[in-house]
Structures are given as structure tokens and as C-alpha cells.
Amino acid sequence: MLRILHRAYNAGTHREGEPMHFGISMFPTDYAIPPHELARALEERAFESVWVPEHTHKPDRAAVDQLAGAGVDRAVFTVPSDTREQVLPLLDGYAAVSR
To answer: Which pTM does this prediction carry?
Structure first.
């Protein structure tokens, strides 16, 4: 995806002084907001796009089997709850390479 966006940027689709457009990406799960409701809410708030991937990851079969063998029937992994001081420098780095 980054390669495609990079090509689009180099092709002259972005013009100096134009506003940046923002979109949202979601991973649909059984406990997430339904995608059509999210899309409606984002449209009301003037977001440019919503991206919904076909899957979030490829499970590690050995790890899944090990968890199942231990009696675990559901595992939820979340983003670390780091402090602003830890997260913002990472975002600054991402923003710097997108300019």
C-alpha cells in the first residue's frame, strides 16, 4: 500500500498548499462498531475515507494450538498503552517520511 501511495504522490496528485485529507482504518471484529455505522459517523465528521482490511493477521497455528490446549478459547491483543512521550516520537517519525 505504501508503494501505491508513494507512486500516486510522485505522479503529481498532491499540490502544494492543498489541505491534507484524513481517513480511518478499522479491523472489524465481533465487538467493534459495524463498518456501515462507522462509515456513516465518519462521513458526518468530514473524514475522506474508511479502510477495512480483509484480515488483520495470519494466526500462528502453533501458538493457537498451544493456547487451545491450555483451555483458552479467545485471545484479544491490543495496542500497548504507552505514554504520550513514548508514542508521539514514533508518530513524528512516520509523519516526517510522509512529507
So the answer is: 0.41
